[in-house]
Amino acid sequence: RKEFVDLYVNYVFNESIRKPFEDFMQGFLRGCPARKWKMFLPVELQTVLEGHKKFDWRLLEKNVTYVQYGMLDRTIRNFWTVFRKLPEEKKKMFLAFLSGSDRIPGRGLEHFRFSIVDPQVEKPDEIYPSANTCELILFLPR
Known about the structure:
Low-confidence stretches: none
GO biological process, one term: protein polyubiquitination
Radius of gyration: 23 Å
Order of helices and strands: HHHHHEHHEEE
EC number: 2.3.2.26
Distance between the termini: 71 Å
GO molecular function: ubiquitin protein ligase activity
Organism: Eudyptes chrysocome (Western rockhopper penguin)
Strand order of the largest sheet: 1-2-4-3
Strand content: 5-15%
Structural class: alpha/beta
Largest sheet: 4 strands, mixed
Helix content: 40-55%
Catalytic activity: S-ubiquitinyl-[E2 ubiquitin-conjugating enzyme]-L-cysteine + [acceptor protein]-L-lysine = [E2 ubiquitin-conjugating enzyme]-L-cysteine + N(6)-ubiquitinyl-[acceptor protein]-L-lysine
Number of helices: 7
Shape: elongated
């Protein structure tokens, strides 16, 4: 029985996926040559590919630039007051809204910079905040 179980487990986890995995690996290595990945330890490679899972939200606040706003403008102060009170999951949801991902890229939060921009519309109460995820810009109406 033990031999049967060992053979069956080997088939399910190794033999049955060998060809699809080899095809995947060939395509992956074409775009990402293995010699470049060997410089990373496994935990470092995971961080590079997945991003950071732990955050220092105060550092995020320090790395913001403001366009048509000042750090002491009422809208900005209110934004950060509300943000600080959010639970961790809601802060991650904001990060996903802003950047398209709920994680910080591998370089770390100290290098993650975004802008808060006043869209300067005539009736700011009639538009919602929006984001440009490619440029890391939050358009926050007054």
